[in-house]
Amino acid sequence: MSKRVHANDGISSNGKQALTEAGFKVTSDFVPQDKLAEYINKENVEVLLVRSATKVRKDIIDACPGLKLVGRGGVGMDNIDREYATNRRIRVFNTPASSSISVAELVMAHLFALMRGLHESNRHMPARGQGEFKDLKKTYEKGLELRGKTLGIIGFGRIGQWTARYALGAGMNVIYADNHATAEAIEMEIGGQTVRVAVKMVPLTELLAKSDAVTLHVPAQKDGSPVLGRGELALMKQGAVLVNTARGGSVDEDALLAALENGKLRGVALDVFTNEPTPRADVLAHPKISLTPHIGAATAEAQGRIGSELADIIIEHYAQQSVDA
Ligand code: NAD
Description:
- The protein folds into 2 domains: 4-98 and 300-324, Rossmann fold; 100-291, Rossmann fold (3-Layer(aba) Sandwich), CATH 3.40.50.720.
- The protein is 40% helix and 19% strand.
- The chain has 13 helices and 14 strands.
- It has helices at residues 13-21, 33-42, 58-63, 82-87, 100-116, 118-128, 133-139, 158-169, 204-210, 230-234, 253-261, 281-285, 300-324, and strands at residues 4-7, 25-27, 47-50, 69-72, 91-94, 150-154, 173-177, 185-190, 193-198, 200-201, 213-216, 240-244, 265-270, 289-291.
- Strand 1 (4-7), helix 1 and strand 2 form a beta-alpha-beta unit.
- Helix 1 (13-21) packs parallel to helix 13 (300-324) and helix 5 (100-116) packs across helix 8.
- The two termini are 17 Å apart.
- The protein binds nicotinamide-adenine-dinucleotide.
- The site of nicotinamide-adenine-dinucleotide (NAD) has 32 residues, from helix 5 and helix 8.
């Protein structure tokens, strides 16, 4: 009988096709969290694939003894009780490299938007664009260029380094802070040539004081604490902008709203929120926040790479099992 793979948050068509051609039966209809364990057991699902929405906690792991693999399409594993699953001989895996470019491009989109007020202007043009065109033009003619500004990258792993490449390409200066990474340079492909560009690691306090724009690319911290709280935001340059595509809890949202209200920050961009999928209303309604609903990895290209990586890992896993048997 075909092994059963269920992708509860979806899977790209190429990933589904690769698995189907390898003899797996793949389903991808969303099953609500409270019905998932029952579904897995009834349908004999051996491989459960999730993105960030579906949680694979102890309750599901305990209730589903037939589960053999849990795959996370993407990077962060904070929606999976990984250690608990591994202790119960469930293999847990992710696809860490597939989405870095897409997240970095979203960061750049938000940075350009924040510098020119695109997020605000887009909200006002439909209702006021005909009657108050000149007033709106006055409001949004105080834009800034990214070229020549300093981008501070907190967390210089895969996404942080891809963001650095795009920012350097846009003519920004790049500095970074990281707990572990100590890259002195990164390689970039430009016009078919590979160039090595020096990058500088600085202490977090120096990064905050020197950066015109700050972007966060750290995982959820083990103790759940924010990387940027009231104290850190106070150290930022007056009129700087901040982008968070890491995790909602990486920035203290109360402190963020206060920094926007007292004029410390020019603008903020958020792709991730503390209380997903129901972010707080005052964050969503704030005119100085550029918003996206956790779509950092949601491009056709990234989902295609994620789908094939998931399929390759699953196919390889079962091929190895039949060799070992
Ligand atoms: P990565 O592991 O390659 O890099 C993370 C870096 O952060 C590491 O170099 C680590 O040393 C550093 N770090 C950890 N804690 C730190 C701290 N307190 N201060 C400074 N540096 C710290 O991970 P990645 O692939 O670059 O992804 C980063 C995060 O981006 C993921 O963990 C995930 O939460 C988030 N993400 C979001 C989306 C989205 O859709 N918005 C998509 C993919 C990933």
